[in-house]
Amino acid sequence: MKKTIDPKQIQGEKSYSDLSAYDQALVEKAVKSKFSRRDVLKLMAVTGVSMATAQNLLSTGQQAMAQTPKKGGSVRFASNLHGPDDQLDPPQFTSTIDYTRGRATYNSLVQHSNELVPQPELAESFGPNADASEWTFKLRQGVTFHDGSPFSADDVIYSMNRHMGDDSTSVIKSVLASIQEWKKVGPYEVKAILNTSNADLPLLLGLFQTKIVKNGTKGEGNGTGPYTMESFEPGVKSVHKRNENYWRAGGNFDVIEITGITDPVARVNAVIAGDIQMASTIEPKAFRQVEEASGVQLLSTPAALQVGICCLKNATPGDNDDFVRGLQLIMDRKRIVKKILKGKGSIGNDTPIMAAHGPDFCSELPQREFDPDQAKFHFKQAGISSAEVFVAPVAPGIEDVCLLAQANCAKIGFDLQIKKVPTDGYWGAVWMNEPVNVVTWNMRPTAQSQMAIQFGPGAAWNDTYWNNDRMGVLLQDVLSQTDPVKRHAMMCEMQTLIHEGSGMVIPAFSNINDAIAD
Question: What residues form DSSP beta bridges with 61?
Fold first, then answer.
């Protein structure tokens, strides 16, 4: 009869992750043999560990093997938006499908952990001087681009300089405005010299648009990332193949196809039917359908994903503060979260900052409530009796949010018209162009970067064209403020300015809701 050893995890003993690759292979063999006495004794002899440690190695090794994804195969992912403006040039990345392609193709100096803590990526280490006015990044050696070219400091300097200068078209130029100069220290070392202290710089260098491209190029799909670009058709699809020369553990799939299905019903039906394996931005109306489908699960992640409406401050009717206030007050925020978002979200207060931003969230800012009478008063003060909002399903439940606002407006004698438009090309043709349009924003890693990219004076993505000089001063000064009380007061002042005058209506934040086939 075959004798087996019962594996038990023991605190304080060496675990599977502490072993070399060779010794991990011995543990895996013992696990596969169902812990035969011979393999356990061999493990003890070769690694020189006790019986207790051997048991712990088997337990932790079994857990690691169970959690290790199987490699191979292919997967099709469908985003909710795509169009002719799809990008491979990181400083121009705008939408979820751009971000997804960017993550597959390129790397940044720094990446965010699940807890939004900056981790080394192409920089193997980084650190500040005493007052965080300079940051030094030591780069990985032996990394190559997909075309075989070696990665070096020259690529970093070139890529980072594309976010600087008067001629820069980077959409995050305002977010990185604290950087005065990027300096090459050596072939694998660079330094960021700032015009003010900024302890948040590593977090900012993990943003979607900070991917490193080859010196002298605009990316063009030639990155250092886990997948090579096999083909790319803007508004159609891209195909990516696993990079066999990746500098760290690579992707699990052999091939990834990234496309868009703009119709939310068709996108859900496609993942349930097995035509795709992952679908982003599932509409709340489809939650039950996904949850009841065989072989498909709904993945709902709490996040500060904005469900909003932009009222352009350089056009009628958004240039009228009373109109904007009326639209803000007609939002039945509690009903939006409970009935439209099905509880998978949180109430907004017409600023992009919420509790997930930690101590920088101004919790003392009074919550704007649903108040039809006051909404009626402000619409009357504005001298405006009707307005049109351009709507596409760019955010979870946004169409229903607008329909609810339309119904509430009708009750007080205001005619809110809804102009439905396609999602294809929405970010290029409608957003920042039509006077009143719907919008969504992903959460940025810091409150300062969130407000800078949306509301920095002159920022490329200041989507209501609200240019407030005081806001610009505060965005700059808060970077060097180390006193937590003074910093919070500055953050509160900025959120109050946005709340009162930006032209933005943010009644709710949605979870990120995706469907994934088993």
Answer: none
CB-count exposure of residue 60 (10 Å: 0-12, 13-18, 19+): buried
H or E segment at 57?
helix 51-67
* pLDDT greater than 80 at residue 17: no
pLDDT at 36: 53
Q: Is 394 within 8 Å of 422 (Cβ atoms)? A: no
Alpha-carbon distances of 399 from 13, 286, 309, 389, 414, rounded to whole Å: 55, 14, 11, 10, 18
In terms of residues, how long is the chain?
518
CA 117 to chain centre: 14
Nearest residue to 298 via CA among 75, 100, 517, 114: 517
Q: Is the pLDDT of residue 224 over 90?
A: yes
112, 205 in Cβ contact below 8 A?
no
For residues 255 and 104, what is the distance between their CA atoms, to the nearest angstrom? Answer: 11
- Give the three-state DSSP class for 390: strand
Paired with 418 in beta bridges are: 389
Beta-bridged to residue 139, according to DSSP, are 123
Task: Assess contact for 512 and 396: CB atoms under 8 A.
Answer: no
Separation CA 436–CA 477 (nearest Å): 32
DSSP assignment string, 469-513 = HHHHHHHHHGGG---HHHHHHHHHHHHHHHHHHS-EEEEEEEEEE
Q: What is the percent of the chain where pLDDT is above 70?
A: 87
What is d(CA 476, CA 470) in angstroms, rounded to the nearest whole number?
A: 10
- The share of the chain scoring above pLDDT 90, in percent, equals 74
Maximum distance among all Cα pairs of the chain, rounded to whole angstroms: 91
Q: Does a cis peptide bond (omega within 30 degrees of 0) precede residue 317?
A: yes
If we measure between CA atoms, which residue out of 251, 209, 203, 204 comes closest to residue 226?
251
Q: Which is nearest to 423 in space by CA: 100, 99, 81?
A: 81
Burial 469-491 (b: 16+ CB within 10 A, else e): eebbebbbebbbbeeeeebbebb
Beta bridge pairs of residue 391: 420
Two tokens, residue 374: 């006051």
What ranges make up the beta strands (E) of 281-367?
A: 296-311, 345-347
Tokens of 393: 């399903």
**Three-point CA angle 238, 243, 244, nearest 5°:** 150
Question: Is residue 15 classed as helix, strand or coil in its secondary structure?
Answer: coil
Tell me the C-alpha distance between 98 and 31, whole Å. Answer: 42
The predicted model gives 369-396 an average pLDDT of 97
Cα–Cα distance measured from residue 76 to residue 319, given in angstroms and rounded to the nearest whole number: 44
